[in-house]
Specification:
GO terms for molecular function: oxidoreductase activity. Belongs to the short-chain dehydrogenases/reductases (SDR) family. This is Short chain dehydrogenase. With about 260 residues, this protein is an alpha/beta fold. It has a single domain (about 10-260), classed as NAD(P)-binding Rossmann-like Domain (Rossmann fold, 3-Layer(aba) Sandwich), CATH 3.40.50.720. Helix content is about 45%, strand content about 15%. The chain is built from ten helices and seven strands. It has helices at about 15-30, 40-50, 70-80, 105-130, 150-170, 190-195, 210, 215-230, 240-250, 250-260, and strands at about 10, 30-35, 55-60, 85-90, 135-140, 175-185, 235. It has a seven-stranded parallel sheet, sandwiched between helices. Strand 1, helix 1 and strand 2 form a beta-alpha-beta unit. Helix 1 (about 15-30) crosses helix 8. The protein is globular. The relative contact order is 0.15.
């Protein structure tokens, strides 16, 4: 089991939402934290609100242009020592159809949601294998399992995460490295407001389902519980989880008809 007390935990996307909740819960559990996001001022706000701000370091990163992940990993380790737990939480979504989504938006979403977490993971894996311990927590989505309109890039990136981390678990699970995939549903965050719109700029609107979603602190607590239990994967969702089971057990024609009837932003 992975206990966080005394561990070095690196959290991306830590300036708000689920990432902020992960930082709060991990700090309460006695972890030392390295927090990353693009917004240093917001990271500082999060740090000041934590139970033990003296055990929190800030490492601003823009994952859309992560040039040197090995250097980022070295900088993270320079604060408190080698990273024990990596929480890949940063991500970006979309609110555009396949016809109106430019290739630049596909590349941006894949860069942030897939390539960046994989790159940071690969930068840390050699040290974890050498120490015989480590845990990589990656926030996917229910869209890692299902397809939906206006999510072609987002669903593709989340599906790709499952392929990579499920395979990595097979390769490295017996060398002391653990992997947990997290599949949240609707969580009350800025994900819809920050999603890419048709012009490639933030959508700027909070979806009704997101606005009425789960408290991110509750989601974060359930994530750390799954990590402590060494869960391979955990779905943290309400009624939206029904779509996952529909996709799994219904004929694809039936699921497609069901998804077409859903009103999504």
């Amino acid at each position: 089991m992975t206990q966080l007390a005394g561990k070095i935990v690196w959290i991306t996307g830590a300036s708000s939402g689920i990432g902020e909740g992960l930082a709060q819960q991990a700090s309460q559990r006695g972890a030392k934290l390295v927090l990353s996001s693009r917004r240093e001022a917001e990271l500082e706000r999060v740090r000041r609100a934590l139970p033990r701000p003296q055990d929190v370091a800030l490492l601003p990163l823009d994952l859309s242009c992560l040039v040197d992940p090995e250097d980022a990993a070295r900088r993270a380790a320079a604060f408190f020592g080698p990273v024990d737990v990596l929480a890949n939480n940063a991500g970006i979504s979309q609110r555009t159809t396949a016809l109106e989504t430019p290739m630049a938006a596909y590349r941006q979403i894949m860069e942030v949601d897939f390539f960046a977490p994989v790159a940071l993971t690969k930068a840390l894996l050699p040290g974890m294998v050498a120490r015989g311990s480590g845990h990589v927590v990656t926030v996917s989505s229910v869209f890692g399992h299902i397809a939906m309109a206006r999510r072609t890039a987002y669903a593709a990136a989340k599906h790709a995460l499952h392929g990579f981390y499920d395979s990595a678990r097979i390769e490295l699970g017996q060398q002391g490295v653990r992997f947990t995939l997290v599949c949240p549903g609707f969580v009350r965050t800025n994900v819809s407001a920050n999603a890419l719109g048709p012009d490639g700029k933030p959508w700027g609107q909070v979806d009704k389902e997101i606005g009425g979603g789960m408290d991110p602190a509750v989601c974060a607590e359930r994530i750390w519980q799954a990590v402590e239990q060494d869960r391979y994967e955990v779905m943290i969702a309400g009624k939206e989880a029904i779509a996952v089971y529909f996709k799994r057990f219904l004929p694809l024609t039936a699921y497609t008809a069901f998804a077409r009837r859903l009103k999504v932003m």
